[in-house]
C-alpha cells in the first residue's frame, strides 16, 4: 500500500483479496503497510487490483521464504518478551542450565545469571537425548520450577517443546518456546507452535542449510506467528575437536536474507566450556542479536551437557567482556 493509504483502504483491499478466496498476512510497518497474499498461480487474480485506492504496487515475492525474507519485510523484527527486546539495539543474553535438575539448582542459577546480566532464563524440561537411557528431563515439574524462577527473578523463560501434544502445556508456563535442532523439520510441531501465538526460538538443524532454516520458520509464520527467533547452534562437519562446527558466517548471511532476530548458541555448537567465551564474543562481533549459554553451578555433576557448561563465575566474567565487545559496535548487553 502507498505510504498515505488510510486504514479503510487497507481494510477494503484485504476484504477484496478474501473475496477471491485467498488468505492475507498484513505487515504493518513504520512507513507503510504491506499486505502479503498467500497462494499459487491463481493469486494472479490480484493483479487487476492495481487501480484500487491506496494500492501502490503488486509485487510477486521471489524469495522462497515469503514472510521470513526481507523482500516483503525490510525492517528488522524486534520481539518483545515481557519487556525484553530481542532483535533491538541490545544483545539479549539467554542463560541457564541445559536441564532443570532440581529446585535448589535452578534457584541458585536464576538470580546469579540475572545479576551477571542475563535477560532470559533457559532450562530444559523435555530433553531430546541421543540415547534413550540418558536423563530425559523432569517434564512438567521442571516447567513449574521455571515459572517459579520467573516469578522470583522477573526473567522471562525459554524451554524446549519436543512434542506437538505438549505445546499447550508448555505454553502455559514458558514465555518463549524452543524448537530444537533435531525437530527443525518436524512440520507438525512447527505448525502447532505457530498456532500457539507464543514467541518461538527455532534452532538450525545439524544438517540444515540457511534456506532450510528460513523455510522452517515460514511454517510458523504462515500460522500467524511472526515472533520467530532463529538460532545458529553449529552444524555437522568432519571436525572432531568440537561437538558441532559453529557457522558464524550464518549470522550476517541470515541477517541479509531475513528480518528475523538471530541468536547464537556457543554451548551446543562447541560442546566444550573453554570455547564458549571466545565464540560468544565472536558471535556478538558478528552481529548476533543474542546468545544462549548453558551454565551450571557444578558442571562436573550436571545431568546433561556438563562439559560445555560455564560455572556461574565464568559466566559473570564473560559478560564483562561481552558488554565491551557489544559497546564497540554500538550495542548494549
Ligand atoms: C538445547 O538447547 O537444550 C538443545 C538440546 O539444543 P539443540 O537442539 O541445539 O541440540
Ligand atoms: Mn544442552
Can you characterise this structure?
This protein is of the alpha/beta class and 333 residues long. It folds into two domains: 7-49, no CATH class; 79-328, Alpha-Beta Barrel (TIM Barrel), CATH 3.20.20. It contains ten helices and twelve strands. The strands form three sheets. An eight-stranded parallel β-barrel has the order 5-6-7-8-9-10-11-12, surrounded by seven helices. Strands 1-2 form a two-stranded antiparallel sheet. Strand 3 (79-81) and strand 4 form a beta hairpin. The longest helix is centred in the C-terminal third of the chain and has 17 residues, at 312-328. The structure holds phosphoenolpyruvate (PEP) and manganese (II) ion. Residues 98, 268, 294, 304-305 line the site of manganese (II) ion.
Binned, the helix content reads: 25-40%
- How many strands, what sense, and barrel or not for the largest sheet? 8 strands, parallel, barrel
- The average pLDDT is 95
Low-confidence runs? none
Write the layout of secondary structure elements.
Elements: H1 7-19, E1 23-28, E2 33-38, E3 79-81, E4 84-86, E5 92-96, H2 103-116, E6 120-122, H3 140-153, E7 157-160, H4 167-173, E8 176-179, H5 187-196, E9 200-203, H6 210-221, E10 228-232, H7 250-257, E11 262-264, H8 266-270, H9 273-285, E12 290-294, H10 312-328
Helix pairs in contact: 2-3, 2-10, 5-6, 9-10
The structure holds phosphoenolpyruvate and manganese (II) ion.
Phosphoenolpyruvate is lined by residues 98, 124, 128, 160, 180-182, 203, 233, 265, 268.
List keywords for this structure.
333 residues; 12 strands; 2 domains; binds phosphoenolpyruvate; 15% strand; alpha/beta; binds manganese (II) ion; 8-stranded parallel β-barrel; TIM Barrel; two-stranded antiparallel sheet
